[in-house]
Design goal:
globular; alpha+beta; 5 helices; 3-stranded antiparallel β-sheet; single chain
């Protein structure tokens, strides 16, 4: 609670009228003091219950690999302009991307970079669908359950993420012509095909870690 609350990048603080997170250049504040300030401003009780870090190996600056996090919260009551997510069930998926042309797809070089902007929007849809999948279905592991190291999925009960039918991405894939033929039988097969269909060269998309929390459950 006494750790510093990391500031947001310059410009991000203007996206909404209220945020717990300080902008770059603001006075140093701890997590505890930020929560106390928020309680004073909004008049609601705020408790810090749980925290987790999603991590993977660091990459070189010129690497053809990148990490991103997909987030989703069910039954959210937060306004559209609010930062962060709130709800009764939340999920986060840490996704690793690889590709020879990944840098050009991820970074905006100009306003005329239409394909890059389209790709990023499509990828955000996939990212969010993965987090929704975690929230909507009980999941045991990623490619196999923690108690079963075999490649065969468990037939009864919760399945590993990659063995689940990718229901949360179906409606979005149906609206985008390049993904109409995507095999949604399982999350694993969908991710194998998505990178090529999206235009990533010699690449891959994979989930390397995830967390899921429910209101009221034990920490």
């Amino acid at each position: 609670m006494e750790a510093p609350l990391m500031p947001e990048p310059s410009g991000r603080s203007q996206e909404s009228s209220f945020s717990l997170v300080p902008a770059a250049g603001d006075q140093f504040t701890t997590i505890r003091s930020a929560i106390a300030n928020a309680v004073t401003r909004v008049g609601e009780k705020i408790m810090f219950k749980r925290a987790a870090a999603l991590t993977s190996l660091p990459f070189a600056l010129e690497s053809t690999t990148a990490l991103s996090v997909g987030l989703y919260a069910h039954n959210s009551t937060a306004p559209v302009e609010a930062k962060g997510l709130s709800g009764t069930v939340g999920g986060a998926a840490l996704v690793r991307l690889r590709g020879d042309n990944l840098k050009s797809l991820l970074l905006s070089h100009s306003k005329e970079d239409v394909r890059g902007a389209e790709w990023r929007k499509e990828y955000r849809g996939l990212e969010r669908a993965l987090a929704r999948q975690l929230v909507g279905f009980e999941t045991l592991g990623i490619k196999h359950s923690p108690t079963d190291k075999s490649s065969e999925p468990v037939q009864d009960g919760p399945l590993p993420l990659y063995a689940q039918e990718f229901n949360t991405y179906g409606p979005l894939a149906a609206r985008l012509p390049r993904y109409e033929g995507l095999d949604l039988t399982t999350v694993g097969r969908s991710l194998e095909q998505w990178s090529t269909a999206s235009g990533i060269e010699n690449g891959s998309v994979e989930v390397v870690e995830y967390v899921k929390w429910k209101v009221g459950e034990d920490a």
